Amino acid sequence: xxxxxxxxxxxxxxxxxxxxxxxxxxxxxxxxxxxxxxxxxxxxxxxxxxxxxxxxxxxxxxxxxxxxxxxxxxxxxxxxxxxxxxxxxxxxxxxxxxxxxxxxxxxxxxxxxx
Amino acid sequence: xxxxxxxxxxxxxxxxxxxxxxxxxxxxxxxxxxxxxxxxxxxxxxxxxxxxxxxxxxxxxxxxxxxxxxxxxxxxxxxxxxxxxxxxxxxxxxxxxxxxxxxxxxxxxxxxxx
Lengths: 114, 114
Prior knowledge:
The complex is a heterodimer.
Chain A: E1 5-7, E2 10-13, E3 19-24, E4 31-37, E5 44-50, E6 53-57, E7 65-68, E8 75-79, E9 88-95, E10 104-105, E11 109-113
Parallel strand pairs in A: 2-11
Antiparallel strand pairs in A: 1-3, 3-8, 4-5, 4-9, 5-6, 7-8, 9-10, 9-11
Chain B: E1 3-5, E2 10-14, E3 19-21, E4 24-26, E5 33-39, E6 46-52, E7 60-61, E8 64-69, E9 74-79, E10 88-95, E11 102-104, E12 108-113
Parallel strand pairs in B: 2-12
Antiparallel strand pairs in B: 1-4, 3-9, 5-6, 5-10, 7-8, 8-9, 10-11, 10-12
């Protein structure tokens, strides 16, 4: 399968714990995006990378959130000191790297904070 | 800032009939892209169709067509010959000229009846 992959697919954690999600984009794609989707809503942009550079962060991305893409390939999204309001689907997408190009999404990681 | 409005929270459609999903957008960018994605219950966002703001012709992809009316700032999706597998959430999204981050609408749930 050469699509975008995300791990884990599901994560249940207790409030206050740290969690880390991984995204592997389509191999030749330079841009990688993270979105968050809460129940009944459309996805909301969190951040994106062009190769290893993080070029934009949404104000939704509080100090407890950090994202990396160290070698310009896979990316990780870490949430520290999780809160119940962090419960959501976290979606990763990738694109070749030109404006207005199609983004292809992974299956998402569904986070539940108890 | 960009904004997408999908006014139909849910729709029923009879199998083999066509259905139109409404999408209006608000953007100050002179150049932008418009996208439609399908999200089945599994959660993955599946790309359906793309329309560039300067494209003269409406985009078509198999059973999907996009009715683009630039002056009205609308980009409605038409699904012809509905199938049971079309039952899903459908999201309209727009991208800025730079950065390519997507802004999504609230979605429309489609249920195809046999």
